[in-house]
Design brief:
The chain is an alpha+beta fold. It is built from 18 helices and nine strands. The chain has a five-stranded mixed β-sheet with strand order 1-2-7-4-3. A two-stranded antiparallel ribbon has the order 5-6. Strand 5 and strand 6 form a beta hairpin. It is globular and about 65 Å long.
């Protein structure tokens, strides 16, 4: 007791002891960090890093090959830019779900920084992202996401789409623009409170600019802009993307300007109206995220995300039904069994149609629409599987490696609806099915997309049987995706024979 009293009485000793403890803790942490290394990876070359090892037209394929050598977690250098790749269901679930906060930030490449400037939902972080995402989810629910009212809206659009297919009168046609327009109209009815006619020139231009940007985002020249932004700016590698983006933003801005003039708080017809009402409610606050930039960017987020992936999945579906006519026939037999002729499919029908549900899920898995997922960023130094991932490193959760994981799927490289069926033909869920991603950054419109996929796909196969062009065998149909940010089918023509 006397020793403790003496120790406490000597302030200088207490100070030195505190410093010693602090230095000891710092030393222990330093030892931990110095012994923890970044994940292994190929030796980078000066300037180009590991670009010589990556096919920039299909980077996901190169990364899959590298994962065979370096494992579930590895480091790669895209030019001077160091990234960490996560490959395989187990490690991606561990990172995005078990360590969600460590991998919850969005990595924003230069092209997306230029296009969105940190606004909106998809390409924002921090409190702004939380606030915008919370509002977006609430508004989507208010406008019927996952509810009967939204089902009716999709069914109405399905009728327009079926009639548009019929108008080709047995002639070959490309489904691309029609399907994109139909799917886009569903999200447009939520954003703007209205749909557009398929031949509306303004609407057609918006769809084409969106489609072009999605392709350009995944081209080597735009990727090189992201890796070498200064050089990319000098060469103008990003100009077309920015031109399209500015026109898309300009359309939303003009709609917003007109809507402000006739805004009625008692007549909220879409996302933009709901946002304007929220702005009024937030107007007395000193600080708010509900500014015009976030409105335009979040509306553009919805337009892009709500159009691209769902329409691409449906186009993959039609191509795969031509490729595998026996599967198309089984889906149509199930449709005839559970849906009366002349009656549109409903969401409730899905529960009675396990084979159709399995086929739709397998289209999403096999189509692998977003192979690189949305890149993440580490807000602090992060440790995963004993490796150090430094703060602000871009992390690629390679979605291809989950949807094609050999440990999770019986025949990962084949189109096989049995992946989602048990021995009795009942639908079974699969943990490694994550086309909408998982964790904090999972797709906000997942339930809407699922509803659209079932209603559109089932409705089209109820109305038509799809055949390849005359002289083209099913073996000749090309399943190699086009180059782009998403993996979409290459151009194909189809013959839609009416079933009634």
């Amino acid at each position: 007791m006397a020793f403790i009293a003496y120790f406490l009485a000597r302030a200088d000793v207490l100070l030195y002891f505190s410093i010693f403890i602090a230095l000891f803790i710092y030393w222990i942490n330093g030892i931990k960090k110095s012994t923890a290394k970044m994940p292994p990876g190929p030796m980078p070359l000066p300037v180009i890093g590991n670009l010589h090892m990556v096919d920039l037209n299909r980077p996901h394929e190169s990364l899959m090959q590298l994962s065979e050598k370096y494992g579930e977690i590895f480091t790669i250098n895209f030019g001077p830019k160091k990234m960490v790749v996560l490959a395989g269901y187990k490690i991606i679930k561990e990172a995005l779900v078990m360590q969600a906060d460590d991998f919850g930030e969005r990595a924003i490449d230069p092209i997306f920084k230029d296009a969105f400037n940190g606004h909106g939902v998809v390409f924002s972080n921090g409190e702004q992202w939380k606030s915008m995402r919370r509002f977006m989810l609430a508004t989507l629910r208010d406008f019927g996401m996952g509810k009967k009212s939204q089902e009716a809206r999709i069914q109405d659009e399905l009728i327009y789409l079926i009639e548009s297919f019929r108008s080709h009168n047995g002639k070959l046609f490309d489904t691309h623009m029609l399907i994109n327009s139909a799917v886009s109209n569903v999200i447009c009815s939520i954003i703007f409170g209205k749909r557009f006619e398929y031949d509306d020139p303004t609407f057609q231009k918006l769809i084409k600019m969106l489609d072009e940007n999605v392709k350009l985002f995944g081209t080597p020249k735009v990727m090189l802009y992201n890796f070498y932004p200064f050089l990319g700016s000098l060469l103008g590698l990003h100009k077309k993307v920015m031109q399209n983006t500015e026109e898309l933003r300009g359309f939303i801005s003009q709609f917003l300007m007109n809507r402000r003039l006739e805004f009625d708080a008692n007549d909220i017809t879409g996302y933009i109206d709901a946002y304007l009402l929220k702005q009024e409610q937030e107007s007395t606050k000193a600080q708010t995220h509900f500014n015009e930039e976030n409105l335009i960017s979040s509306a553009l987020d919805l337009f892009i995300a709500g159009t691209e992936t769902t329409s691409t999945t449906i186009r993959w579906g039609i191509l795969l039904m031509m490729k595998y006519p026996e599967i198309q026939k089984k889906v149509q037999e199930e449709i005839k069994t559970h849906i009366k002729p002349g009656q549109l499919p409903t969401v409730e029908d899905r529960k009675k149609m396990p084979y159709t549900d399995a086929v739709i899920h397998e289209i999403q898995r096999f189509g692998n629409i977003l192979p690189l997922n949305g890149p993440r960023s580490t807000p602090t130094d992060v440790y995963l599987r004993g490796y150090l991932i430094p703060k602000d490193i871009e992390v690629i959760p390679l979605l291809t490696s989950v949807l094609y994981d050999k440990t999770q799927w019986k025949t990962p490289n084949d189109f096989n609806p049995n992946h989602f069926l048990d021995e009795n033909g009942k639908f079974v869920r699969h943990d490694a099915f994550m086309p909408f991603s998982v964790g904090r950054r999972a797709c906000a419109g997942e339930s809407l997309a699922k509803m659209e996929l079932f209603l559109f796909f089932t409705g089209l196969l109820q109305a038509f049987t799809f055949y390849p062009p005359p002289g083209v065998s099913k073996e000749d149909l090309n399943l190699k995706p086009r180059v782009g940010f998403t993996l979409a089918p290459t151009l194909y023509m189809t013959y839609a024979k009416p079933n009634y």
